[in-house]
Amino acid sequence: MGRRYPLQPLTKLFLAALGLTALVWILRGLSVLAFVPGLVIWVLILLCFGLGIVSSLQRIR
Question: Which sign does the torsion angle of CA 36, 50, 54, 19 carry?
Fold first, then answer.
């Protein structure tokens, strides 16, 4: 069953950033990526917020 409306490129970028953030957060919590500073996590979270807002504004337009 195909999608009726294909995802916009910005929405795909948001979903990729969200997945990467979740993966880094989980792996850092399991001490696999313990060397990653907390600032990287915050930058990824803020990137997700920004991309989510821009993606939703693009959908309204």
Answer: positive
Q: Are 8 and 51 in contact (CB under 8 A)?
A: no
Which pair of tokens denotes residue 17? 């950033």
At 6-20, the pLDDT tens digits run 888 888 999 999 999
CA 12 to chain centre: 9
Ranges of the chain whose pLDDT falls below 50: none
Query: Rounded distance, CA 61 to CA 58, Å?
Result: 5
From CA 12, how far away is CA 41, in angstroms rounded?
Answer: 20
- Residues with Cβ < 8 Å from 6, sequence gap 6 or more? none
The tokens describing 27, both together, are 């792996």
